[in-house]
Amino acid sequence: MKIVGIAACTSGIAHTYIAKEKIVRAAQELGFEAHIETQGTIGTEDEVTLEQIREADVALIAADIKVGGKERFKGLPIVEVPTEAVIKAPKKLLLTIQGKVMKN
């Protein structure tokens, strides 16, 4: 499964980057591919490309605030969760998403 998405938290510091790392690491361990951009205090980093979006199966928004650029994911299933959900159980979340995406 190929995942694109955004990570962002209220302060734009710790949880933003922890959430991204947890998603990417869990995806690798499960044999998935994940490209997650961060929207933090220093702006957007590792911005997801149009090619990555075109190849993706799902968009994952792990955020505690409103994020910019969600319209880029039009046409993809979009899953929105708080950063805490990703940090606490990233593999479980990705497997749940996979089950729902593959059904459709």
From TrEMBL:
GO terms for biological process: phosphoenolpyruvate-dependent sugar phosphotransferase system. Transmembrane segments: none annotated. The keyword Lyase does not apply. Residues 1-99 form the PTS EIIB type-2 domain. SUPFAM superfamilies: PTS system IIB component-like. InterPro entries: Bacterial_PTS_Sugar_Transport, PTS_EIIB-like_sf, PTS_EIIB_2, PTS_EIIB_2/3, PTS_IIB_fruc. It comes from the Bacteria. GO terms for molecular function: kinase activity; protein-N(PI)-phosphohistidine-fructose phosphotransferase system transporter activity; protein-phosphocysteine-sugar phosphotransferase activity. GO terms for cellular component: plasma membrane. Keywords: Kinase, Phosphoprotein, Phosphotransferase system, Sugar transport, Transferase, Transport. CDD domains: PTS_IIB_fructose. This is PTS system, fructose-specific IIB component. It comes from Anaerostipes rhamnosivorans. The lineage of its organism: Bacteria, Bacillati, Bacillota, Clostridia, Lachnospirales.
